[in-house]
Amino acid sequence: MSKPSIDIDLVVREVLAELGAAPAGDTKKREGGREKREEGREKREKQGLGTSVPSETRGGTGLASGGLGTLVPSAADGELVLTSRVVSTGELSGRLDSVRRVVVSRRAVVTPAVRDELFRRGIALEYVDPSDGRKEAIRLAMITSGTDFDPAPLAAALDREGFSVERSDSDCLIAAVDELAKETSRSDTLGVLLTPHTAAGLCLANRLPGVRAIGGSCAPEVAAAAAAVGANLLVADPRAGSFFQLKQIVAEFARGGMRSCPEVFRGRLT
Questions:
Q1: Are 87 and 108 in contact (CB under 8 A)?
Q2: Which of 22, 169, 197, 237 could form a Cys-Cys staple with 30, CB 3.0–4.6 A?
Q3: 218-239: buried (b, 16+ CB within 10 Å) or exposed (e) per residue?
């Protein structure tokens, strides 16, 4: 069976023409293709099927579409809103000038490289409910016990992500756990216990009715543990890692919102 003949040069010229880099001898073909594309674009614009808009958002006025995600009009000055399910550094390229916060869906997956870049630039990352675009009304009751860690910067960072944080300090670990048990009985409140005595804190908390306390050394571990038991209390050692790691852990826990106890455990954990 004879193999079909393929004009390699023709294929190369067509690819280059699509990229806008055809050889000099094919300038006429390239210009003809460009004119056809322009005619098509103008026709789509007249029909309302698509428009050419800036790819950079400044001061809440830009919007763009295409690629892995979609930008929508910013809700406020200095706010960049992304609706993609996966947020990567490619979507932020050239779009962070004058931006003070990036807003994504609560279900979005934000890559570590994006988190690092936003942290380096001092840009807040905020999550919203994808159903209506509003921030979830999650309240965090945060108590420090047995540590000189100052929770104010952590509370401020969480506030920038849309969580209301009420913090306090207790010299008694038992009293701190009891107070958090009362707080987490509310329908809008998650508890955070910051203490170096994490094992004792977990044991004390999980002996109380309605409390489902978990710990974790990284954000993915905390997210998995919280989902597994419907956690409403996080116990973490604020000195175990960096401030950024602690912020990621607490934010990931809060981001999951109010969780119900899984049916299989309700007889024991509620």
A1: yes
A2: 22
A3: ebeebbebbeebbbbbbbbbbe
Quick count: other Cβ atoms within 10 Å of Cβ 196?
16
Domains of the chain by start residue, with CATH = 9-45 (no CATH), 53-135 (no CATH), 139-269 (3.40.1400.10)
Residues in the chain: 270
User: Can you tell me the distance from the alpha carbon of 98 to that of 111, in angstroms, rounded to the nearest whole number?
Assistant: 22
The burial of 76, by beta-carbon neighbours within 10 Å (0-12 exposed, 13-18 middle, 19 or more buried), is given as exposed
Per-residue confidence band for 27, with pLDDT thresholds at 50, 70 and 90? very low
Token readout for 32 is 């003809």
DSSP class per residue in 140-177: EEEEEES-----HHHHHHHHHTT-EEEEEEES-HHHHH
Tokens of 148: 């000189």
List all residues 6 or more positions away from 258 whose beta carbon is below 8 Å from its beta carbon.
138, 187, 188, 190, 232
Alpha helical stretches, state H, 47-123: 89-92, 112-121
- Please state the pTM of the whole predicted model: 0.55
Q: Identify the residue whose tokens are 């994504």.
A: 104
Q: Is 209 helix (H, G, I), strand (E, B) or coil?
A: coil
Residue 44 confidence (pLDDT) = 47
Q: What is the pLDDT of residues 141-167, one digit of tens each?
A: 999 999 999 999 999 988 887 788 999
What is d(CA 193, CA 211) in angstroms, rounded to the nearest whole number? Answer: 13
Q: Which pLDDT band, with edges at 50, 70 and 90, does 52 fall under?
A: very low
